[in-house]
Amino acid sequence: MGDFITQLFIFPFFMVFVRLGAMMMVMPAVSDGAVSPRIRLLAGLSIAFLMYPALIDKIPDVPDSTPVMIVMVLGEILIGVMMAIGARLFLATMALAGDMISFMSGFQAATLFDPRLGGMSTAPATFLTIMASLLVFATGLHLWMLQAVFESYDVLPIGQIPPMGDALASIVNLLGAIYVIGVKLAAPVVTVGFLTYMGFGLLNRLVPQVQAFFIALPLTLSLGLFVLGVSLASMVTLFSDEVFNYAILFTQTQP
After folding, report:
1. Domain residue spans in the chain?
2. 2: burial class by Cβ within 10 Å (0-12, 13-18, 19+)?
């Protein structure tokens, strides 16, 4: 009776939870430090409980040896992490854009607690990363990732090693794209800040008696906040478009 229950319920449920739980531990927004581990655990168990009846025919039998079981579990963890790491890395574009905005607007010293990272970060970077976490749910990226977990068993069955070469190549390409997209997001504020500093630099050369630094700092802060507010809608649109162009590739399985 115990073997029947294990084969029918415990083992299939556990294997689904391992892949899903590994994905949720890396999934953007859900894996942030501000989210309680108990909430993530409860959400993972609940979703795995709903998924496993539809996937039970794709779950192999309980292995006879412990080493085989360990290899299967490690493979499931690896697959789950691979499916979410691209979207997780992609949120670094907002942090990069926020740091560039801070540098060009004089916000380097304005640090705040970042609940996502559990540490201190500049005010624009903290604001943009929190907004990016919100966009994960607003754009439905979390639903795409859950759907990808469900469909991944057709392409990556339990016990099969994922194609690491293709995954690593995709991550390298994504890391290069992150910097390009980060510059695009911060371009309006960076451009205005550069022109402002250049103008005050010329003023300081023409009229050395003028204390350009004390005049430029409040003006740069004001212009940076103004341009950030004006361009925020465009930044959100660009980020949302790029999410579905890049990060979603890590959450879709192709036959």
Report:
1. 2-251
2. exposed
Angle at 183 (CA atoms; ends 99, 175), nearest 5 degrees: 90
Measure Cα distances from 8 to 74, 107, 235 in Å: 21, 58, 49
Q: By the 8 A CB rule, do 124 and 209 touch?
A: no
pTM of this structure: 0.72
Q: Is residue 112 a contact partner of residue 120, using CB atoms and an 8 Å limit?
A: yes
What would the pLDDT profile of 54-112 be if each residue is shown by its tens digit? 888 888 777 778 888 888 888 888 888 887 887 777 778 888 888 888 888 877 766 76
User: 65: alpha, beta or left, given left = phi > 0 and alpha = psi -120 to 50?
Assistant: beta
Burial class of residue 48 in the structure, from the number of CB atoms within 10 Å of its CB (0-12 exposed, 13-18 middle, 19+ buried): buried
Q: Are strands 119-122 and 111-114 parallel, antiparallel or unpaired?
A: antiparallel
Residue given tokens 């080493």 in the structure block = 67
Burial (Cβ within 10 Å: 0-12, 13-18, ≥19) of residue 250: buried
* Pairwise CA distance, residues 197 & 26, whole Å: 40
Give the tens place of pLDDT for each residue, 111-123: 766 666 666 777 7
Residue type, 85: I
pLDDT in tens, 225-253: 888 888 888 888 888 777 777 654 444 44
The C-alpha atoms of residue 72 and residue 109 are separated, in whole angstroms, by 48
Enter the DSSP assignment of 59.
Answer: S
